[in-house]
């Protein structure tokens, strides 16, 4: 299919029907040109209507088949149409979307084949990094904001441990103990299995010492991997992803992840937190003329690998409902079988790059992929193994919401730089952002760790004072001779503190926050007023 240099013949029969299926009247993104019978037909453009991009999609294909360039191509055109975009840059080669592309023989050849008027263009970008790792504006989440379900995924807890972590969050919320970073969570867990704290959870199930130990060890291991910096304040406001530039183009938000690409569960779960946070905050808009944001979820299989049923159900519900808030989500992975069927059923727009069939498992994955497409006049097993780099099999939703005919497509060339920008340009873009001053420096304010530590110190001091007072009273009795009893002294402040208990004192200090639990979303992430 890729060696199609013969001149295109006039379209007729099935090819004409396929081309007619992409002749949309409204605004649409140009993906490429139809491949049929060994030829590329620039007069048969393959497009996707702008209004259906909130119906979600899938970009799949084997390594090296051009998935990243497809994301770049779609991101450019969305930006040009005033739609903000979010991209995760795992390999460090997407930053080039901010700079004009480089003209060359291959670019001109591809443009001529697909009927593209190529023009080198850079697009407005913001660059982010998780917790300040590598280049980018730091993106942090508080532990409370992240929630117990997503945190359990990151810490690789089993179902029982996940439920216990949910109980810990419930208790911290009810007592007004803010979990900002991991040391806050560790302090609350340690307290709840201490002699003083065990009674606190008796009425709602309790926390076993064994489970608490597993959670604490997981937190420690997580921090030793350098992941502690991802949790803290200031917590990132994901509404920043919805901005447009002064010229009306959508801003492309690029999350730089090369520094954490060896921590796949971490970055895939953080992407889900971002999506869940957007879901919490945005109002219902139905089906707008164009999306508010298109979110590309790269390496999607990492999110689903080893996920609990509850976690998968939460993902499915988020994907199903976030469409009505104007957000489109594209999952990016190698084969459709990487995505659970309930989620896959929500993905109406498909761009499938080449698949390889070197092993029996590859052949099985190929057959499974073919079954996810509508019936077509192509021999899809043959087509999918014969596609060249930058070619794909495509079906999208029409303006009426019906699937378009399956079309083998030669994709257009991105107009921005197909590679990373240099480090100096990236650093300048980061520090020149209006968001840099707001998020660059971490803030460590008083939260659960500081409060519990202060209360523990106060209790210890009170106990010492009480012991000293008791000893002094004994000595006073021994030294007194006859003469009536000495009046009983008023209880000291220390005795009052000890008598009240650690958390009774804490409850008084936080006043009206006591007993008010944070309202949580599908994933248990906290809803915050902004």
From TrEMBL:
Highest taxon in the source lineage: Bacteria
Cross-referenced SUPFAM superfamilies: P-loop containing nucleoside triphosphate hydrolases
Region Disordered, annotated ranges: 463-497
Transmembrane region(s): none
Chain intervals with Basic and acidic residues compositional bias: 468-478
Domain (Helicase HerA-like C-terminal) ranges: 41-530
One Pfam family of this chain: HerA_C
Protein name stated in the entry: Helicase HerA-like domain-containing protein
Species, as recorded: Streptomyces flavochromogenes
């Amino acid at each position: 299919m890729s060696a199609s240099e013969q001149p295109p013949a006039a379209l007729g029969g099935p090819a004409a029907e396929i081309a007619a299926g992409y002749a949309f009247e409204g605004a649409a993104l140009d993906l490429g040109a139809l491949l049929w019978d060994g030829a590329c037909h620039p007069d048969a453009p393959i497009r996707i209507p702008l209004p259906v991009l909130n119906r979600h999609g899938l970009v799949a294909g084997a390594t090296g088949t051009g998935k990243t360039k497809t994301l770049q191509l779609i991101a450019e055109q969305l930006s040009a149409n005033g739609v903000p975009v979010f991209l995760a840059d795992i390999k460090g080669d997407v930053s080039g979307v901010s700079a004009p592309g480089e003209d060359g023989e291959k670019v001109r050849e591809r443009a001529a084949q697909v009927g593209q008027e190529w023009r080198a263009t850079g697009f407005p970008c913001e660059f982010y990094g998780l917790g300040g790792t590598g280049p980018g504006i730091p993106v942090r989440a508080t532990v409370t904001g992240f929630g117990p379900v997503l945190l359990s995924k990151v810490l690789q807890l089993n179902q029982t441990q996940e439920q216990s972590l949910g109980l810990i969050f419930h208790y911290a919320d009810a007592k007004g103990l803010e979990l900002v970073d991991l040391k806050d969570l560790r302090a609350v867990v340690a307290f709840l299995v201490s002699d003083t704290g065990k009674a606190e959870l008796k009425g709602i199930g309790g926390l076993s010492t064994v489970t608490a130990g597993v959670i604490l060890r997981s937190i420690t291991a997580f921090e030793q991997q350098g992941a502690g910096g991802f949790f803290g304040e200031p917590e990132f406001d994901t509404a920043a992803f919805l901005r447009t530039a002064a010229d009306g183009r959508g801003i492309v938000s690029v999350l730089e992840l090369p520094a954490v690409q060896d921590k796949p569960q971490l970055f895939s779960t953080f992407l889900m937190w971002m999506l869940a946070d957007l879901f919490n905050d945005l109002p219902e808009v139905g089906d707008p003329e164009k999306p508010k944001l298109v979110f590309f979820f790269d390496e999607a299989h990492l999110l689903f690998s080893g996920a609990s049923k509850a976690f998968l159900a939460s993902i499915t519900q988020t994907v199903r409902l976030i469409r009505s808030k104007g957000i489109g989500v594209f999952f990016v992975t190698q084969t459709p079988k990487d995505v659970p069927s309930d989620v896959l059923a929500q993905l109406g727009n498909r761009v499938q790059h080449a698949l390889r069939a070197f092993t029996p498992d590859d052949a099985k994955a190929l057959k499974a992929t073919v079954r996810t497409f509508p019936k077509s006049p192509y021999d899809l097993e043959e087509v999918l193994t014969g596609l060249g780099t930058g070619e794909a099999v495509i079906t999208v939703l029409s303006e009426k919401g019906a699937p378009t005919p399956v079309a083998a497509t030669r994709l257009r060339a991105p107009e921005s730089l197909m590679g990373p920008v240099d480090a100096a340009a990236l650093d300048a873009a980061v520090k020149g952002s209006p968001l840099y001053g707001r998020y660059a420096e971490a803030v460590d304010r008083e939260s659960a760790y500081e409060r519990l530590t202060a209360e523990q110190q106060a209790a210890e001091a009170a106990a010492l004072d009480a012991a000293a007072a008791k000893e002094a009273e004994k000595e006073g009795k021994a030294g007194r001779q006859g003469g009536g009893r000495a009046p009983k002294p008023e209880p000291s402040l220390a005795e009052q503190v000890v008598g009240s208990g650690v958390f009774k004192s804490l409850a008084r200090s936080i006043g009206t926050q006591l007993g008010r639990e944070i309202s949580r979303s599908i994933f248990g992430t906290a809803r915050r007023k902004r």
